[in-house]
């Protein structure tokens, strides 16, 4: 029995590590290329991104690699009639599957850790490098296309000489329901100050137009600070719960509970005051809808925080679920070529597991489903794998 265990584990580890290296490298290059094209990063920022992008590449590569290694090893074992041989000796096929299940369980725990590191440390590191390279990104875009834009800002220039922007126009979109305001100048220079989280515009003969509500002229040279968030299109302080480390979620949930309780107490105190003052118009549905929006937002954040641990553990343990269907499917097909078995498993995963996961994730974010509903896809795969394994053992 120990010989079978060592035999399966050696084959699985060999194929898994080799395939993981190749798949991680491919995903890694795709992610780096995407950042380089979208952000216009140079060589130095790209080199600084490498350690932060590695966990993000591995979180995509590990589950697929585990499935591919499983179908490769067990397809070859079944095609060589080794399963038939051990059954003829009275040994259950499970003796050749248990080592891989244990390996997949360990890989699942490792994947949870990789996912946690990718969305917290990795994502934060990528954003830090991008913000510190913001000046280079902006000038790179302006030199190539003479424009730079995101959801909050649009910059166009007539020409770029070194760091001098000739006849630039800065269009700021402060809110969707308010008109944009613009800033124009004869010349401008952009200087990023990461320590202050701002970009300083040095302008020559600037003019500010407040969306048709008036204009201000600044002859000569002047400086105009703009926050990093407006130039990058993303906040530098506010993080999504999806980018919290698991160790941060518990304290954040407690803080969110306290905030919700405080907001409700404030609304109750305000309602009591309005009743005592006889200001019934302040208790109208329209007024209380506006007052209830901070509570709705805080409850939405709490739903996201409750969801995140389940999402990461469910994503990590997809490795085990993939193995539970990959091993019996490869044994049942009895083909040494692994692509057929791989796609026989991956197609149902693509059509059933991922839609279930995404659907439950969306409903859990809105509070319709509880956070643990994201495990539904894993449970479906596990049930299918158990049914397949029972048929392999029986027949």
How is this fold's topology laid out?
Blueprint: H1 2-39, H2 43-79, H3 82-88, H4 94-132, H5 134-145, E1 147-149, E2 153-156, E3 159-161, E4 164-166, E5 169-172, E6 181-184, E7 187-193, E8 198-209, E9 215-227, H6 228-232, H7 246-277, H8 285-316, H9 318-333, H10 338-365, H11 376-394
Helix pairs in contact: 1-2, 1-4, 2-4, 2-9, 2-10, 4-8, 4-9, 7-8, 9-10, 9-11, 10-11
Structure report:
This protein has about 400 residues and is α+β, with helices and mostly antiparallel strands. The chain has three domains: about 1-135 and about 310-395, no CATH class; about 150-230, no CATH class; about 240-305. It has eleven helices and nine strands. It has helices at about 1-40, 45-80, 80-90, 95-130, 135-145, 230, 245-275, 285-315, 320-335, 340-365, 375-395, and strands at about 145-150, 155, 160, 165, 170, 180-185, 185-195, 200-210, 215-225. Strands 1, 2, 3, 4, 5, 6, 7, 8 and 9 form a nine-stranded antiparallel β-sheet that branches. Helix 2 crosses helix 10 (about 340-365), helix 4 (about 95-130) packs across helix 9 and helix 9 (about 320-335) packs antiparallel against helix 10.
- Number of DSSP helical runs: 11
Strand content: 5-15%
Mean pLDDT: 85
Helix share bin: 55-70%
The span between the termini is: 21 Å
Secondary-structure class: alpha+beta
Write the H/E string, N to C: HHHHHEEEEEEEEEHHHHHH
* Count of individual beta strands: 9
Q: Tell me, briefly, the overall form.
A: flat
Largest sheet: 9 strands, antiparallel
Radius of gyration over all CA atoms, rounded: 28 Å
Q: Provide the number of structural domains.
A: 3
Low-confidence stretches: none
């Amino acid at each position: 029995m120990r010989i079978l265990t060592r035999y399966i584990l050696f084959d699985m580890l060999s194929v898994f590590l080799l395939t993981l290296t190749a798949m991680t490298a491919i995903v890694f290059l795709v992610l780096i290329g995407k950042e380089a094209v979208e952000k216009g990063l140079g060589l130095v920022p790209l080199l600084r991104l490498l350690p932060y992008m590695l966990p993000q590449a591995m979180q995509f590569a590990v589950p697929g690699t585990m499935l591919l290694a499983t179908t490769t090893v067990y397809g070859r074992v079944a095609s060589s009639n080794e399963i038939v041989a051990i059954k003829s000796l009275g040994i259950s096929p499970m003796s050749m599957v248990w080592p891989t299940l244990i390996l997949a369980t360990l890989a699942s725990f490792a994947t949870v850790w990789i996912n946690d590191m990718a969305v917290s440390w990795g994502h934060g590191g990528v954003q830090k490098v991008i913000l510190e390279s913001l000046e280079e990104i902006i000038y790179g875009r302006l030199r190539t296309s003479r424009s730079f834009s995101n959801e909050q800002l649009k910059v166009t220039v007539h020409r770029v000489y070194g760091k001098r922007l000739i006849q630039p126009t800065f269009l700021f979109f402060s809110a969707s329901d308010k008109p944009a305001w613009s800033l124009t100048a004869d010349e401008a220079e952009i200087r990023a100050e990461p320590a202050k989280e701002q970009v300083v515009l040095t302008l020559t003969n600037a003019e500010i137009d407040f969306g048709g509500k008036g204009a201000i002229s600044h002859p000569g040279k002047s400086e105009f600070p703009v926050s990093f968030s407006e130039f990058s299109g993303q906040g530098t302080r506010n993080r999504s719960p999806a980018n919290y480390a698991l160790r941060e979620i518990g304290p954040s949930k407690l803080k969110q509970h306290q905030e919700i309780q405080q907001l409700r107490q404030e609304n109750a105190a305000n309602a009591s005051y309005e009743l005592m003052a006889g200001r019934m118009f302040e208790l109208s549905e329209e007024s209380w809808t506006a007052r209830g929006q901070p509570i709705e937002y805080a409850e939405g954040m709490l739903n996201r925080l409750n969801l995140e641990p389940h999402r990461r553990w469910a994503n990590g343990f997809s490795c085990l679920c993939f193995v539970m269907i990959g091993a019996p499917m490869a044994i049942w097909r009895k083909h040494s070529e692994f692509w057929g078995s791989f796609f026989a498993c991956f197609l149902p995963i693509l059509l059933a597991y991922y839609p279930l996961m995404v659907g439950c994730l969306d409903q859990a974010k809105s509070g319709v489903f509880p956070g643990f509903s994201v495990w539904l896809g894993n449970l479906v795969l596990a049930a299918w794998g158990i049914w397949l394994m029972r048929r392999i053992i029986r027949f």
